[in-house]
């Protein structure tokens, strides 16, 4: 069957002497693997379509839910600037690998697709990459069924002024229920406001916001705890991103 889909390249690997296999995150067909014959050759008409982070329209032939074969395509947004900047490439690679490892093949991908698209667009447009990435992580947690809650206590449902957050239990703990998780974080008001905002905000609505370095550092610690506790993924891109962060000025 011939398919025509809009997709974003989240993984690209060499296959044989001149071919590539790309994994696409699509809005309508979930995650799909497609073989692009001859794409490694410089003059190939498919070479640009197989670049990581590329958003385009892909036409491919596929039988029995197996690997597709690319017939033709058209680039909608190349995201060239992300591949040219080492730090932005690291953030974008993390976003793609996180989605790739979390989204199952054939899983309906509309929400995943729109959030990844917004993430890459935000990185390309100069928005704070760390804030974009943490909001994206929150959306991934929600889509995977592990989204934390910050309005009321995750244990008893009570509302109070507590700013204690439990990664293990998945959200806010009131002062009475703090004992349920000795490892819970007591976060600053700035971090708590961002977490509450991230819970409700679609990534497509994120504007340019300025966040203090101390708040971003605390936010990273909390979101890292949520990702490790709820998803437990070992991602090469995150390790590389952490190494780059040590040298970022």
UniProtKB/TrEMBL annotation:
Keyword DNA damage assigned: yes
Domain DNA replication/recombination mediator RecO N-terminal: 1-78
Family according to the record: Belongs to the RecO family.
Provenance organism: Fontibacillus panacisegetis
UniProt keyword DNA damage, yes or no: yes
GO cellular component: bacterial nucleoid
Gene from which this protein is expressed: recO
InterPro entries noted in UniProt: ARFGAP/RecO, DNA_rep/recomb_RecO_N, NA-bd_OB-fold, RecO, RecO_C
TM regions (residue ranges): none
Pfam families in UniProt: RecO_C, RecO_N
Function statement: Involved in DNA repair and RecF pathway recombination.
UniProt keyword terms in alphabetical order: DNA damage, DNA recombination, DNA repair
Protein name, UniProt field: DNA repair protein RecO
Gene3D superfamilies in the record: Nucleic acid-binding proteins, Recombination protein O, C-terminal domain
GO biological process assignments: DNA recombination; double-strand break repair
